[in-house]
Amino acid sequence: MNGDGLVTVLDCQGPEGPATDLSLLLARIDELEARVLALETGPMATLTLDSVYNNVLSILVEAGPAVILPIADPNTDPTQPTFTTIGSEQLVFTWSKLPSTFSTPLDFTDPSAFQGIVPVLSFNGTDEGAMSTDHPFWSAGANGSPGSEPSFSMGAWINLSSGTELQYILSKFDNTSGAKQREWDFTAGGNRGELLLRDESNNAWIGRNISGTATPGLWVFLVATYDGSGSNSGISFYLNSAPAGNVVGSFGSYVAMEDTTSAVRLAFRQGSSKQEFYFGGKMGGGPLGPFFVQGTLSPQQVLDLYNAGASAMGLIP
After folding, report:
1. pLDDT tens per residue across span 226-256
2. Is the model's pTM score more than 0.70?
3. 111 and 117 in contact (C-beta within 8 Å)?
């Protein structure tokens, strides 16, 4: 560079010294132009949140009626107290506090509010979450009869701050003393992911868990499915689209899941006397927000969801 700040031919260094040959200089310019064109026309250039929404929803509804919890969607106002699900039902969730006032405030001008083109929301693990009042959609037809046992699936993109504490992703579970209304809970942390299904009348549950899901600082796609068989063997887990080795469990004599009056909670559960087991870390938002499907996702559908999400987040080419 000369004293006027202009680039000269001598600045175009090749591996063997100054590129004084004009043809070499032109070749380097062509290479740079090709790289710029790839960025402008490659998959990430044409990917938009709307296209990801369409893709994800089209996969989910193949299995059954489905909703996405579009947390942190850039089309919403982080100073508003509610958000509404997208998909087969429009169900309103109310935040425990405004996302703009979270410990890590949701600020769309901050690059850390995105992973790839996907918005993400950070939860502090102590008092940040959302709740929606009871609705039949979340019970998927359950009524306490084995003949009406529902099938369903749920999943989320998560990035835990710590892997040692039990943390809730979604729950339809109210453990209030003297007024228990427990239906299902989907958790991570405690060095495992877990789905438990409850039979409130019989104080029983069936479940399955997968170990090794909690690697703090890494994005993982966790999916749990249930085939409505009334058995813990009907629950399956997937980690980053791969079927995950897991352990079954049960308590009492499970007959069937019931349609309780419990609210649905995002990122925590209702304990016996307080709200507890808050999620600590990041969740994917917008089209990659947590989802619930009234049906059993197939392994291929889980793989398709993973590919769609990982591409949008820039985790795979």
Report:
1. 999 999 999 999 999 999 877 889 999 999 9
2. yes
3. no
